[in-house]
Amino acid sequence: MCGIVGVTGREDALDVILRGLRRLEYRGYDSAGVVLADGGAPLQIVKRGGKLANLEAALEDESLVGATGIGHTRWATHGAPTDRNAHPHSDPDQRVAVVHNGIIENWEELKAGLPDAEFSSETDTEVVAHLVAAEVEGGATLPDAVRAVVRRLQGAFALCVQHADTPGMIVVAKREAPLIIGHADGVGYCASDVAAMITHTRDVSALLDDQVAELTPEGMVVTDLDGAPTQAHDYHVDWDLDAAEKQGYEHFMLKEIHEQPQAIADTLRDRLGPAEGPSGTPRLHLDECRIEEGEFGRIDKVFIVACGTSLYSSMVGKLAIEHWAGVPVEVEVASEFRYRDPILDPHTLVIAVSQSGETSDTMAAATHARDQRAPVMALVNVVGSTLARESDAVFYTHAGPEVAVASTKAFTTQLAAFLVIGLYLGQARGRVFSSEIGDILSRLQRLPDQVRQVLELDDTMARLAQQYADVPYTMFIGRHVGLPIAMEGALKLKEISYQHAEAFPAGEMKHGPIALIEDGSLVVALAQAGHTFAKMVSNIQEVRARGASVLAIGTDGLEGDLKAHAHDLVTLPEASHELASPILAAIPLQLFAYHVAVARGEDIDQPRNLAKTVTVE
Ligand code: F6R
Questions:
Q1: Which atom of ligand 1 is nearest to 492's Cα?
Q2: Which atom, in ligand 1's list, is nearest to the CA of 306?
Q3: Which end of the chain is more exposed for a tag (fewer CB within 10 A), N or C?
Q4: Closest-CA residue to 55 (of 80, 90, 20)
Q5: What is the DSSP string of 544-596?
Q6: Ligand 1 centroid distance, CA of 363 (Å)
């Protein structure tokens, strides 16, 4: 996820771009860059690693001129967050400049087709600049060149392209990533999000997949990939600026909850490499691997270390790894790990899980493991974060920036990532066949649509939240994959609504916690389809008999049993694999916590006493 802004036909183009980028910085702040055209080559490009402020400081020493330009704020996916990898990217003569949001899946293959080209970054984007330059060199107009290149791209992208020979023109294209265009008073605008354009025009058009638009001061022309005129989705924005940054959502947390279908699709995308070996079968691969892959085949034990929400996804990770890789896994609170004597050696894999990749406790646990010569795999969201850099192998969740303190999409993408990591370790240990991996991965592709379906429960969860907003105590119970979700549900509720909530293994209730139940307590029971379903139904009856109100989260088709015993029932689609079911169950609990906090009037995106990234021990 990155932010793109373009403008053509304004003398103060640079200012307009910088103000737009400021509003899009929530989409990523690993680096920022701008390009301006004033009718000559090379194009004027300035870019810097780090936040937008670094770019603004660099621009003080430059005198960029031109009424047409593009800006970019980056959330790194391919290549570390450095000056070199910052956008715009260009051909060696700086005649073409390209900014990009998304992931071009076949960039390596396209790059291999340009053996003589000089590349100056590690990004997937630069290949587009080279390809467009070659098309224009061959006689194509800029829009034709972009259409020809886009036809060859696989993956998700919003692209914005400029050429020195057509200084008043910007060409944009998109597939599975947002791009909005608009035109007012002789000026053309484009941006990843209307927030960057809203002060200039409120009548905008959302480009549809595989559409290409040509923006000039004279107007905008939208075509399909064959160059035939077509229609984008026109609409009028009536939100104010603050709402626009959140794309119309009241809070970043709600926006990020609704981003989960896309985020999960991005986590699962492009995990199988090209066909290899005598059998010619594709194999799973990691985003980065600085040790010999064969080492994963020799591990005999796994530790997973993490904090908070990441710790709960790790508990599902344990189940996935034990299931597919057949190796014992221990999950440990990162802040405790190095204060005991974990038995570590080069055959122990330590997986450090962190959205930010900067959490001190998790970093310290990973360092402790590396000191004992245990290989460390990082499961992180932020590309180029300290944990990612200092680990032997990295799996990125590609969830995009998470702004709200309460983690949502980072959690469900970690759950999706652990399914792939379980299969990857199973593959390395020769325990799962590639046909099985292919089959499971293709069934997992249903997840984004199923998550979309679950998000339709928003109104239901808002109603239930109103109903239960003032209960004195909420207990979450679950078994097997339901237990970590119960724990995450309780954490979400307490951290944003400040309501007292705890989670217990449903089978443990009778050993003590059931004493807490009294009239008016709320028990949220995770009872999805799976081998512990019948046991959960019994546990629900036990708490209900002692006066609790029961809100059950169950599976379509099994409502019969649950309806008879729960006061309220929320039904979910059946996951394509039992280990994927937590992803669906987490979402109603996120919505529940969100709406309880709204009902209680709390500060949702910045709850008291908490910080997004915890860099103290
Ligand atoms: C809760 C939450 C925290 C984080 C924890 C670890 O919503 O966000 O519990 O999960 O602080 O942070 P990361 O994953 O960045 O290491």
A1: 7
A2: 16
A3: C
A4: 20
A5: HHTT-EEEEEEETT-HHHHHHH-SEEEEEPPPSSGGGHHHHHHHHHHHHHHHH
A6: 13
Query: How close is the Cα of 260 to the center of ligand 1, in Å?
Result: 17
d(CA 513, CA 339): 29
| % of the chain exceeding 70 in pLDDT | 97
User: Using CA atoms, how far apart are residues 299 and 147, in angstroms rounded to an integer?
Assistant: 48
Mutate to test the pocket of ligand 1, among 337, 359, 608 (most ligand atoms within 8 A of CB): 359
Enumerate residues lining ligand 1, CB below 6 A.
307-310, 354-356, 359, 362, 406-407, 491, 495, 613-614
Which residue's CA is the nearest one to ligand 1's atom 10? 309
Q: Which residue puts its alpha carbon closest to atom 5 of ligand 1?
A: 308
Pocket test for ligand 1, best of 256, 304, 310 (most atoms within 8 A of CB): 310
The per-residue pLDDT for range 254-295, each reduced to its tens digit, is: 999 999 999 999 999 989 887 776 667 888 999 999 999 899
Q: Residue 235 C-alpha to ligand 1 middle, in angstroms?
A: 37
- pLDDT tens, residue by residue, 93-144: 999 999 999 889 899 999 999 998 999 999 989 999 999 999 999 999 999 9
Q: Is the pLDDT of residue 612 over 70?
A: no
d(CA 102, CA 156): 5
- Positions marked active-site: 2, 612
Q: Could you tell me the two tokens for 510?
A: 């009778």
List, in order of start, the domains of the chain with CATH numbers: 3-237 (3.60.20.10), 252-445 (3.40.50.10490), 454-600 (3.40.50.10490)
8 A C-beta contact, residue 45 and residue 145: no
